[in-house]
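Problem statement: downstream parser choked on a complex file, so we are re-checking the raw output for the zinc ion run. The parser issue turned out to be on our end (a line-ending mismatch), but while we're here, posting the original submission so the record is complete.
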Amino acid sequence: MINFLDEAQELFSYTRNLRRDLHMHPELGFMEVRTAEIVAKELGKLGMKVRTGIGQTGVVGLLEGKAPGPVILLRFDMDALPVQELTGVEYASINPGVMHACGHDGHVAIGLTVAQLLYKHKDEFSGTVKLIFQPAEEGLGGAERMIADGVLQDPKPDVALGLHVWNEKPVGWWGIVPGPIMAAADKFTVRIIGKGGHGAVPNLTNDPILAASQVINLLQSIVSRNISPLNSAVVTVASIRGGDAFNVIPAEVELKGTIRTFEPAIRDLVTRRFTQIVEDTARALNCSAQIDLNMITPAVINHPDVTSRVQKVASSLLKGDDLDYKTITLGSEDMAFLFQRVPGCYFFIGSANKDLQLDAPHHSANFNFDESILPKAAGLMAASAIEFLVD
Ligand SMILES: [Zn+2]
Ligand SMILES: [Zn+2]
């Protein structure tokens, strides 16, 4: 059996240099031009067939084995976030207001390392590895754009694998869980429309601030009183805007937020109650409501057979590590769109190190992770790919 951990460890300085370079030059979704160039260049050096401009800035590399066989898709996301970095590391972002605050710099570096690892052994397997470097994972629809541009054809993948560094867990932890592992995400904007007026004469207004505050309170009853305590859902109001002056009741208040669920039946229940509460509460307070509610990603559902094979690979490769086959999250991921079409497994790599103060949450201005996980992550991805290819 190939020792991918040792081989990945030998490539550690390559992986870390790449990751730090990408970290220093982060690019927002659909603007990953420099990143895509680096990816295409590195894959090209290995003699791979490389396609660029898939889903605007996405890159696809095909690594052919010694003979035709199964097609294994490995997906890595590339985009950064609109965050001003505060880590103070020497490789901190030089792009103002843009930061790799989710770890996708690490994913690209892992992906290119996996390409190196599998290239070295391409005469030892039959089949094709399709490495895809995806733009705009952070809520902008990069996966759907790549699918629309044909990333799941020519050749059509039989299995898809993806990963995420995970600062909610320490180095040495791995989350490889079958079934629904990340939630369906809905995004909502609610406008509560009343009648504005003088703050000292509220009786002549229909106060949308009061209506909005009641709506926010009552929305909390959905999870606590409509959903079974044995199921999961989230209703979060994340933004409230209305009014400018201390003595003016505004005509309108806008609320924005997100709903997270795992199962379609629970989502139906939550969105039905949501609509009822918003509309009826607004009406009870002489206001009206306009609701804009859209699902931005379905739940990420790991295929049980694919996942158990990745678990098997992990348990032989990562001896002594903490392999978790249960923990799931109400975060969301557009890998869900790929998994609606291809059976797959998406796994998490514990990446926090409290002693080194590398445990800030994802999307925070202080986010950074322990780079020692990079070779292990690449090793598991490469070994998992080989698991689905044939000798
Ligand atoms: Zn993120
Ligand atoms: Zn992410």
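For whoever reads this later: The chain has a mean pLDDT of 97.
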